[in-house]
Specification:
It is built from eleven helices and eleven strands. By secondary structure, the chain is α/β, with parallel strands linked by helices. Strands 4, 5, 6, 7, 10 and 11 form a six-stranded mixed beta sheet that branches. A three-stranded parallel beta sheet has the order 1-2-3, with helices on both faces. Strand 6 and strand 7 form a beta hairpin.
Length: 303
C-alpha cells in the first residue's frame, strides 16, 4: 500500500512501478492522507481496477498505513512510499517465500538516491543485532513484506511514532515471530530504490516529532534496545538533541547524559552533553530550523 499527502507530481511513478510487476494477482491500495493538491484527480485518471483509493482526514503516515492494511484484502502486506521505485520482480521476489507457512517476514536490499545527485548507494540486508534477535532483515519502506497475521498480532503501526515507524514495528514483529515460531528470510538483490530527501525537507525530522518518536522507542522498548546499547544510546541522543533544538536544555542534558552512560565508549555523546550544559553554545549549534546532526534511521548493531 502507498500512503500519500500532497505528492501528486510524484505519486504516478510509484503506482506505475507496482502496476508493472511480474507477479499477479495483487492490489494497490493508495491512502490519500488529506491531500489538498491534485492527488484526487491524479488517482481518478489512473483507470486501473487493481488500484484502490481510500481517503482520510490528515492523520499521518502511520495512520494511513494502518487504514490501508484494514481495507486491503491480501494475506501479505507490503508498504511503499509515494516517491519510491520498485523493480518489476519486487512483488514476486518478496511474496514467493510465503509459500512456506512458517515464513512471516521477507526483506530485500535497497538502493538509496541522495538529493545532491551523488552516486546511489546500495543498502544490503544485515543482521540487525541483539535488539532484533539477530534476524537478517530490513525495516525501511518498500524493503519488507509481512504476513497479515503477523502484522495484526504486532498491532500494526504505532500512530504516535512519526519517525522510524517501520523500525518500531520491527521491534514488535520480532516478538511475534518468536512467540509463534515463525521465521524470516531475505532476498539479497536490491529491489526498491528509495529517494532520500534532504534532512531539512523531511517533516519526520521536525524536532517535536523526533523527540516524541525517540522517547516512544525508549519508553516502550528500553528492555529490547538495551540488548544493543548503541541503539538505545542512539535514540537517547536523538531525543536529547531534539530537546536542545526546542530550547529544553535541562531535559537535553538528562537524555544526553543517559546516552553517554549507555554507550560510554562513544566520545560524541560527551561532546553533545557538554554543548547542552552550556546553552549559549548549544543554541548556536542546534538551531531549531536546522534538523541535521543526529541519524534518524535505524543503524545495524556494530558492537
Amino acid at each position: 500500500m502507498i500512503p500519500t499527502h500532497n505528492r501528486a507530481a510524484l505519486l504516478p511513478r510509484a503506482i506505475k512501478g507496482v502496476l508493472a510487476q511480474s507477479a499477479s494477482p495483487f492490489e494497490v491500495v493508495v491512502v490519500d492522507d488529506g491531500s489538498t493538491d491534485d492527488t484526487a484527480s491524479v488517482l481518478e485518471a489512473i483507470g486501473d481496477a487493481r488500484v484502490r483509493t481510500v481517503h482520510q482526514a490528515q492523520a499521518g503516515v502511520a495512520a494511513a498505513r494502518n487504514h490501508g492494511a484494514r481495507v486491503a484484502t491480501g494475506e501479505v502486506l507490503l508498504f511503499l512510499d509515494d516517491d519510491d521505485d520498485v523493480e518489476p520482480s519486487w512483488l514476486q521476489a518478496l511474496t514467493d517465500p510465503f509459500a512456506d507457512p512458517a515464513i512471516a517476514l521477507v526483506s530485500c536490499a535497497s538502493i538509496h538516491c541522495q538529493p545532491d545527485g551523488s552516486q546511489p548507494r546500495e543498502s544490503p540486508v544485515r543482521d540487525l543485532g541483539a535488539a532484533y534477535d539477530h534476524i537478517q532483515a530490513k525495516f525501511d519502506t518498500g524493503t519488507y513484506a509481512v504476513r497479515r497475521d503477523a502484522f495484526e498480532a504486532a498491532g500494526g503501526f504505532a500512530e504516535e511514532v512519526a519517525s522510524g515507524e517501520h523500525h518500531e514495528l520491527g521491534l514488535r514483529l520480532v516478538d511475534v515471530l518468536a512467540a509463534r515460531s515463525w521465521r524470516s528470510t531475505f532476498v539479497s538483490t536490491p529491489l526498491v530504490t528509495i529517494h532520500d530527501r534532504a534532512s531539512i525537507d523531511r517533516s519526520s525530522n521536525d524536532p517535536h516529532r523526533l523527540l516524541t518518536s525517540a522517547l516512544y522507542f525508549v519508553d516502550h522498548h528500553r528492555q529490547r534496545l538495551a540488548r544493543s546499547p548503541n541503539l538505545l544510546a542512539n535514540y537517547l541522543a536523538i531525543a536529547g538533541v531534539s530537546a536542545a533544538r526546542l530550547g529544553d536544555f535541562p531535559r537535553a542534558r538528562r537524555l544526553l547524559g543517559q546516552a553517554a552512560r549507555t554507550q560510554p565508549t562513544r566520545v560524541k555523546h560527551y561532546g553533545r552533553w557538554l554543548l547542552a550544559a552550556v546553552p549559549p553554545f548549544g543554541r548556536r549549534v542546534w538551531r531549531a530550523d536546522q534538523w541535521q546532526g543526529v541519524t534518524t534511521t535505524q543503524p545495524a548493531e556494530r558492537g
